[in-house]
Design brief:
The protein is mainly beta. It is 6% helix and 46% strand.
Length: 119
C-alpha cells in the first residue's frame, strides 16, 4: 500500500491525525486508528494500524499512493474504557490523497463528531 505516486519534490503523500475529546476538554489518548487504502480490485486494504499518543496524535509512516484512503477510529472502545455511554462504535473518515501531507483531526464526543482537513 505504500510507494507509487510521488510529488515533484520527491516526497510522497503522508497522513496524520489528532483526536480531541470534547467532553473531557483534551486529547483522546489511546484511541485505536486504522489507515486503509482503496484497492483497484474494489476493496479496502489495511496499510497501517496505530494508537493515539498522550497528546491524542498519531502520524502514519506512509508514504501513501494517490487515491482514496480512510481512517477508522475505535471510538466505542475508547468511551467504553472510560465507562461512558456512546452512540458510535467507530468513526470512519474517507478522503482523497493526491500530494503533500494530510492532517485529519477528529473532534469527538459520545454522541457526535466532526472533522476537517487540517494543516
Amino acid at each position: 500500500m505504500t510507494g507509487a505516486g510521488t510529488v515533484a519534490d520527491g516526497a510522497a503523500p503522508t497522513v496524520s491525525t489528532h483526536v480531541l475529546d470534547a467532553t473531557a476538554g483534551g486529547p483522546a489518548t489511546g484511541v485505536d486508528v486504522v489507515l486503509a487504502g482503496w484497492e483497484d480490485g474494489g476493496s479496502w486494504r489495511v496499510a497501517e494500524r496505530g494508537v493515539t499518543d498522550a497528546d491524542g496524535r498519531h502520524r502514519f509512516t506512509g508514504p501513501l499512493r494517490p487515491g482514496p484512503w480512510r481512517l477508522t477510529f475505535g471510538t466505542g472502545s475508547y468511551f467504553e474504557a472510560r465507562r461512558i455511554e456512546s452512540f458510535y462504535p467507530e468513526v470512519t473518515i474517507t478522503f482523497r490523497v493526491s500530494a503533500g501531507h494530510y492532517h485529519v483531526p477528529l473532534l469527538l464526543s459520545p454522541f457526535a463528531y466532526s472533522t476537517y482537513r487540517g494543516s
